[in-house]
Amino acid sequence: MANTVGAEEKRALLDKCAEWLRWDRDASTRAEVESLAKREDWGELRKRFGSRIAFGTAGLRGKMTAGFACMNNLTVQQASQGMAMALLQMLPEKARSKGVIIGYDGRHNSRQFAAVATACFNHKGIPVHIFSQVCPTPFVPFAVRKMGASAGVMVTASHNPKDDNGYKVYWDTGCQIVSPIDATIAKFIDENLEPWDVAINRAMVSDPLDYIVKEYFDAVGRLSYFKEQNHAGRVKIAYTAMHGVGGLYMTRSFRAFDLPDYVPVVEQIYPHPDFPTVAFPNPEEGKGALKLAMQTADANGATLILATDPDADRLAVAEKQSSGQWRIFNGNEIGILLAHWVWTNFRERNPNIDPATCVMLNTAVSSRLLPAMCKKEGITHEETLTGFKWLGTVANKHMEAGKRFLFAYEEAIGFMVGEASLDKDGVRAAPVFAEMAQRLAAAAPSPAGVVAMQLDRIHQQYGYFASCNRYFFCYDPVLLERIFNKIRGDNMAFRKTIGRFQVQRVRDLTVGYDSAQPAPHKPLLPVSRGTQMITFFFENGIATLRGSGTEPKLKYYIELCGPYENKEAVNAELAELVQSVINECLEPEKNKLTPPQDDIPRSKL
How many CA atoms lie within 13 A of 370 on its CB side? Predict the structure, then answer.
């Protein structure tokens, strides 16, 4: 962005700088702003002061640096002030009596931001239960429900680059916030921007760590179906925490199932805020992110790799095949493997329970294989919008109606097993997957490839579903909107074909249109005008295009299905459809979209 700006914008930016310097009490960020103003670096000043960091259903997330558009002590204080005022309006008695749970990960400044939030809540008479050491994100929603708290805050940027941080909010249900709670908090933030004179009140602060660790792992242990046999498991497992918090707790999770100890990827097992061995600390990125884990597994004879992201709420899985090659399972594959495992064992032990009283969920961009399985088995299934804020909220709705929630997942390697808490959880999904692998290996001549063979059996039972989920980087929000508006066409005249594939239905959850619904074509799923999302339905498949809510990505999710015996033809059709969607809808060369570094779609191709 050019440093040349008009006189009026200069005055506005300098006014914002002056406001910052009046309010900011951090010497390092004050010095940053003073230096930028002195150098008249208008481009950088515009980035940092041209807008405020937005508070939404994902809370806050951004780069840690000075400025109202960034993550720093001042913007965290402003967010916490707004949240405190929202709690006192919406849940006053619970806020004052039960307080707020606060956790934080191992990133730079996470503990400091958690302390700032604590001081703000204390200032308004709200007790805080803050973990005394870094913890997985799943501990916070678990603790909110277990302790009956009014809300929870987790300071984390999940798998974002090392310079980012975030502020994730849970409400008293233990679910991530959804509208209109986010708008209410945002309103109170805007009304309380000037920082209060705050300090932590030790009489209003407690450490829930020991209590929650015990209760959480007791709950994890209850998910095991074969605890008596697990200790004799034949599958050797390597585990990486990706320089995150999972390594401090995964051993306890395995022991809750009485599983054999895993082989740690020692270079990545403990928290490190700089993520020194990975460019992107996201196990979803594939072989590049799992390189050290594969080396460790090969050196130690392990045939299964489990990986959690830095805040340990996501789980990635890779398995060595009989050929000696590693297969990385995508989120849909892990999801159906876990769903089938959970249902098979639950059903075997509860033969008299009506399957319709049991619930499984996945998101609109996840595989149709789960609803196919649920339909055949008689299980209640519901599709939600993307994100665990929706999966958790819908799961809670079914639980309050007296149904038994069993499992939910989203394709971005997020899994929620059982009712212990209502958010994705890699720490409790990992031992469930490990137990499944151990039982599959117990009935096989060799542990190599047993998970892949189980996936084949599931496809034979419920149908073959081939998927390709990938993305391009799109750093310009205006360009992103322009791309989607072109896809919509004039007056919502959506295309009738993509390549040679006939479009049978279109659903646009940005503008609120579904051609399958009677006029005025209002979709059944909630509309989110702040997020671009269009889905095309074909005779035997689906293609969804959406803008990420937390990263500068334009994502595509494409799936086709058919009989298992025709899987090669399905794979070939999928490859053709993927290329047609990219060429005709996304136009990456024309729109100057940047592909990911490892530009090989992780699919069944």
Answer: 32
